[in-house]
Amino acid sequence: MGACYTTVFRVKAKDETTAADAMRRWMHDMEDAGFARFSLDAHRAEGVVPDTIDGVIMVVLAGWRNTPFRTTGPDADGFTTYENDFEASYGWGMVLLEFAAALAPHLEDGSSFYIEPDDEYHDIVTIDGKLINRQNI
Predict the structure, then answer these.
(1) Is residue 10 within 8 Å of 111, Cβ to Cβ?
(2) Do residues 125 and 132 lie in contact, with contact meaning Cβ atoms separated by under 8 Å?
(3) CA quadruple 25, 28, 30, 32: dihedral positive or negative?
(4) For the segment 94-112, what is each residue's pLDDT rounded down to a tens digit?
(5) From CA 74, how far away is CA 113, in angstroms rounded?
(6) If you write DSSP's letter for every residue of 81-99 in order, what string do you get?
């Protein structure tokens, strides 16, 4: 058994195409380095195409097929919220944090990531393209 994750990502890309392209490159770099496996071909076969920011986030929020993955929005301010509760390896929490850090420069200020693996949590927001822990604001 791995860790149980609760995730809520509320994001608004500055440019969705640029953000999705950058994150696909990041995913390939992570796979090439042996740090993570995203199974992009398997996702494509299931209809989840990481050619958009929606698709990229669905892939990263692992286990979407067997879990209550939810997308809402965009809201009145243009932010879309992605939520999922899933089980993954204990190391996936680091992948989620690395993903948030790599995506942050492509997001509007106020985009946020809530990541709760088991008995800890990370509540972070983007300001000027950087991740800031909400407890430090």
Answers:
(1) yes
(2) yes
(3) negative
(4) 999 999 999 999 999 999 9
(5) 16
(6) EEEEEEEE-TTHHHHHHHH
Long-range contact set of residues 113-121: C-beta below 8 Å, sequence gap at least 24: 113/7, 113/8, 113/9, 113/10, 114/6, 114/7, 114/8, 114/9, 115/5, 115/6, 115/7, 116/5, 116/6, 116/7, 117/3, 117/4, 117/5, 117/90, 117/92, 117/93, 118/3, 118/4
Confidence of residue 48 (pLDDT cuts 50, 70, 90): confident
Tokens of 38: 């995203």
Query: Mean pLDDT in the chain?
Result: 89
Quote the CA–CA distance of 132 and 39 in Å, as a whole number.
30
